[in-house]
User: Fold these one by one.
Assistant:
Number 1:
Amino acid sequence: MTAARARAQLAADVSRFFGPFRRNEEAKYNLGLGEIECRNALMEEAMGQKEKIAGKLLSSLSKYPGCQGYMPLNEKIAELIKAETGMDFNPGQIVLTAGAADAISHAVFVYSHAGEKVMFPVPSFPYWCSVARNESLIEPIMCMPQDFSDKLSGRIEARAKNVSMLILNVPHNPYGCSIERGEAEKINETASRHKIKVVIDDVYRAFTKKEWIGNSFDMENSVIVDSLSKRFGVPGLRLGFAALPKVEVKHFRAAVANQYVGVSMPSAIIADALLEAYLSNKKLNTIPKEIEKRQEILDSYLKKLEPYGIFSQKPEGGMFRAVFCRDANLLAAELAGKNVIVKGGRSNFPFSYAGMPEFIRISVGGEERIREAAEIIAETVKEIEMPLEGEKIAVIR
Ligand SMILES: Cc1ncc(COP(=O)(O)O)c(C=O)c1O
């Protein structure tokens, strides 16, 4: 017999999103998961040192990791944050985790008591599983792309009761939207007044030219969550971190330590080698530029589909796009039949949120043949969708 909570979490089972096992799907256009498949100069540099790194990896296996991290890596992460945001974090304010997803799960544990609410704009990365696992409640803010720039703060204010934590992911997965400074300042003010902790999911910080939203937030009331997964193209490393106010470190560290002692040492050693190379030569990170190029190609196709209700309005970064449609499962199945794998938006949202628009999510990270795939997507939309004359840009069910 399984425990009630183990059964209850199946309503928010993230393996629906990621798949239980990996299969070899090389023949297909992979526009589904947010992985990175492109030339990675940083990895090439690491390959040049593979013997040295392998030696360190093997000798790290005989020791338990630290409960908070690995000091050389914590120091480099603090340097990375300083270089990109100007913020001073002491290496002791950083806690290493098994990816950003894990950092978010610990943040829910630390900042939201069971039964309190965690708020985030929806659609989103699957945060609901972390919330369900910690027996907190979800307060989704159903958003269209155009809701981000100037409507978010008002909607947060209206729903702030019993909310203890807000997750903000900018640029947003899947819309690619950013939040303007004035709006971000209003969100910060609302969150502080209602004692809502702000968790900035910063995994796409390197994938935009817009100002970093963290500049508008009071760092005493914020946590930055990030990882090496996207920016350095190594999601399989499962290495992330949280940077948080000094007084909260002990709580966060205990949350990690009580679950798995600390991150895998081989992951920390590889992350350390990658960051060392990156900090000494930032040009080695070829990924954000490649992703931007792919987005431009994809957007050039999506723009032509505007009459069909497709979103491609001035996205500001990230590595995804949402394509609105009448029936996401149908469109995803048609595309799969033509070897183009995308995420059928709604089917991945286990709670069938009321007001969730129909959309498919396209990732440009894992696929080099974007032009070919975009052509198939455009053709398929024209075949099975009808222009949405005079309607808004999405069909809301
Ligand atoms: C917005 C967002 N946050 C977090 C994650 C999780 O990243 P990680 O691999 O670091 O756990 C993803 C992955 O797609 C994401 O899109």
Note: The chain has two domains: 4-39+285-384, 41-282.
Number 2:
Amino acid sequence: MQLIDTHSHLYDEAFDADRHAALERAHDAGVHWLLLPAIDSESHDALFMLCRKAPNCCLPMMGLHPTSINDNPRWREELALVEKYLDNPPTGIRFCAVGEIGLDFYWSQESINEQTEAFVAQLRMAAKRDLPVAIHTRAAWEQMSSIIASEYRAAKQRGERLRGVFHAYSEDAATYRQLKELTEGNFYFGIGGVVTYKKSIVAEAVREMALEDLILETDCPYLTPVPHRGTRNESAYVSHTAQKVAELQGISVEQVADQTTRNAATLFGINSEISE
Ligand SMILES: [Zn+2]
């Protein structure tokens, strides 16, 4: 069984004591690729270092996280740095996506305009370079949807294609259908540990979602799936999410692994590497 953790923060200091062991546990669980979203310049060094050390299993993204914009007078410099890196990646680094980017109005609503500006700018950076985006949304699903709707159309008019993943998808089936329609099937839905929680809205949605639209992720060290809930999350645990999706869809875990791995490989351009 082959899995891809499409959203892992293995470079986070939560793994300073056992990063290598966590990577080995991921491999043992069948997770052969870890896609690592960037947050901001404070963690770029750790991100690049990990990807250089493990180039055959760790692929970085580049982007400015919405919560890094709150209370940050230097956010425009951070945004400029993202574009600089996309045009001139550091030695030994290839970015597989622009991420993570998006809107997060949960912690603070004071930077709505700044977050929106940075989000739109990064969506355009991605479309221009034909890179997928990894979108973080918290307490902002409606605002995010309307920006995606207009940016998707605008990109199309420019002859570009906006595509990517709604990371940590946590909404219902109706929202899934809306988002799928307005992006004409060019976006995937990132399913993580939340799907294993009791009374999870997204678990109900997954019963109705097409397997062709799903990719799997952990968002480690956060959002730990059952049965490890309450402890640190890690990429190996993406197998629990695969198992839960299989249960909800009434199919085998191998089918889930196969299709979601193929989906992720297609979206992030890792087809050739995965067949090696
Ligand atoms: Zn994340």
Note: The chain has a mean pLDDT of 96.
